[in-house]
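Checked the freezer inventory, then went back to the computational side. Two predictions to log before the end of the day. The first one is the construct we discussed on Monday; recording sequence and tokens without edits.
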Amino acid sequence: MSHTYRVLVALGTTMLLLAGCNDSGTTGSNPDRSPNTGGSTGTEVPGDPALVLAPQAEATPNFIVRPYLQAPASDAMTVMFETEDSEPAVWVRPFGSGEEFRKVGGEFHSNDGLVYRAPLTGLVSNTLYEYYVLTKDGVGRQRVSQPFAFKTWPDAGDDVTEATFIALSDTQLDREIYEVVLNNVVTDGFMTEECDGSQPQTCAENIAAITISGDVVQTGGNRAHWREQLFGRMAEITPYVPLVTVPGNHDYYNNAELELYRTYMSPPDNGSVGYEDHWYYLDYLGLRLVGLDSYPISGAHGHFNRETLAVQRQWLRETLKDAEIQQKQFVMGMFHHGCLSEMWNVGESIGSCEMVSELEQYSDRTEAVTGHFFGHTHAYSRGQSLDTPHLWLNAASASGYIEPLDDAGHQQNQISDYDTFEVSRSEFGYSVLSYRFGPEASVILRRKKGGYDGDTDFEVVDEVTLARATNDNLPQATAGTGELPATEVELAIQVGAPDQVHEVQWQISESGSFDGTVFDVWGNDTRRHNLFYDQADRVGGDKYLGYETIDTQQGVDIFRLDLSALLARKSVRPGADDHYRWHKRFSSQNTHTSALDDYHGQPRPTLSLKPGTTYYWRARVRDAQMNWSTWSNGYSFSLEGTRTSNLLVNGDAEAGDLSGWTLTDGLISAITGANNGGFAADQGDYYFAGRGFGQGSPGECCTDTAYQVVDVSDYGTDIDAGKVYLELSARMTTWSADDVPELRVELLDASDQTVAWDGSAARTVTSVKSWESVTVDGFLPAGVRSIKVYMGGERKAGNDNDVYFDNLSLNLLY
């Protein structure tokens, strides 16, 4: 529904209401105390002119959807409902006050005139209000609802220091057997654990809002799903606590323009023009809650739209800048598709990772605590970012079927035990977030499990607090120095207060100043606990009560790191899980190369313990509130071994020609800066470039390639024993990032047949007239007897092929 249509219909409906009630005040805030129709009362009590009775009638409104709350603020609240009755109005006043009512007419919020919204403005902050919904039946008789209640959000002067929010996701109903789940979450969870269901106004007082991170219903275009799956099952709580939602992929199904989502939801109108209701923000004291739409920026479960991503990210940056100006202590993002998703890898989205990175950068700039809520994966997961106190919360599942962790196929194809996540549990439940504002700001997350019949105790199964504080627990090395065998590299530290350490981060580099490439060891193997799943045939539990996790860190000494054993079973890269943000498991998810990826879409280097190399390392420790200590001093260890000289001939192009190289496609030449607008070599006078630059331009289009074969058969015995490490390095760049340079290695056996190897993928760069280091490295597999190094690239624009190479070096370490 367009914004203009809403305004015009709202004006017409309100005027009709005012005429029917004979009210004489202004639209939306009329102080008249009683209507003159239909038998309801709002008159003063005789003898007490200050006390006004509540409206009464013989019948209640015929609600299709009971009242629910939207767009909470310190001075406003929107009441919405669906009915076939006519002339709806909301009467509101401070709870239990006996004051006169403010009367606000319902505005049409659906094309069929059934859904209404009544925006209540000019309210007093931090105040509990009671409200009634009045309608008329087909013959004009007044109907009056029971009393409901809501509480406005506080202003800074209200001396409020704490707030509680409930986080849900995936309230859809995709299996009939799970129909009871959301009912039980509301009745036995919210109305019992979080407030007193016999006095539901306590829900309004205790809970600031309920957030739903997408997949609000099973099919967004199905009206019955909205009426029954969502509002029908949440009817006990929605008249008292605002719903704060974002759309998920299911909400778009049969509803491509989000017509029904936008009919039933009415968030604040502070998003981007043209994207109303898709993204917005709400402020509660020092908390900014940012709702985002991940469907149009996702891949596997959406239709990736680059323009929408650009608009939404720019709006998010501006919103975060405003939050910074207002000194928000907390900023929480909400969207549906996960950046990383332990229990369902195909649900991940690079677009969502860009949103996460924006939030982390806010935390870095301001020292605020940030986080994001997501869903899509029907499991609970909780983690934290590597460098910042940023909370990752998969808030599912509140109704959608839970992930089958006892299924070997699902485990093999869909789950990953990411270092970012500390806890994953495939189960029903909800999460409670308690914010504390002020000089000792903190947020406490408590996960409460339950929902299916027989599992409604809602016990707390996970709890974490994030709060900024100083961590003076400085590590010192106790092992991991001197000359060590490559198979027995173990690092160890000690700290003054070991009980205060929640996790450790180790950094390893070939640079004593920790610049250049730095590898990060952090996460599952370096923290107190890591809750994940055993192999499928050992997993306990079921699809009703949830599946049982194991603690993979049970009994582990986190102050010791067996680096040799770790590298034998997993890859260690710079930035830890940052690699997986930008390189997804399934091709449909790899929608674009993000500008936030430090490696520009290229594979990140992986740590290997290379013979004849000295490594430097340091460590820091994190407390339970996610605060890091400073880094320890730097320490070093060395591995025995030998490094060959450069095995490539003319790798630096200083021969001034292609000596040592064999041309296979197009033209590769050695040129100088004089041939290329003054752009100079990385070192020396010459560098390699594709066709053109006054050196000739073959007519065929558009690839230029040369290679060099290096015989390594003299090292065959050590290669076959797994002791030889290949290290190929080069400096590469382009003129304008249009043409695509590639460096590639092919391994050959004694019969010149290709030997499979993890390092065979081509490396490229997108730097513009700025030489960039590229490395291809790794232990050589058995059987390798020669190494074929390719350089070249493809012309995409212009007449010259602007792919540039210099200082190629191939070394063996053994």
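The second is the one RB wanted added to the comparison set:
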Amino acid sequence: MSNYVNPLSLVAATPMTQQKSSTGGSSWFEAMAQAWGQALDKQAALIQEKSDAINAPGGSDTPSSITELTTESLKMSFLSNSSHTSISTVGQALETMARKQ
């Protein structure tokens, strides 16, 4: 019987030493998920800002403003899909490495 441990699985489970998150998570996987969350929050705030500008009394509901809002919404969709794909893929890879130990 072998006692081999895949080095990548050790890296995935290793706590980060430089910075701890406010939620207590400390692995690079959690840091990646939090970074995606922050990017999505920032994009959502931008969409809200553009939407509020259009809906405000006397707001600018010109075709260019609507197009900008649509563009930001599509960017949100792209970021959301990308975050889901990356987190799922890395999670599945970590699960596969854990099973092979």
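For RB: The helical segments are 7-13, 28-55, 63-99. Residues 35 and 52 are 26 Å apart (CA to CA). Let me know if you want it refolded.
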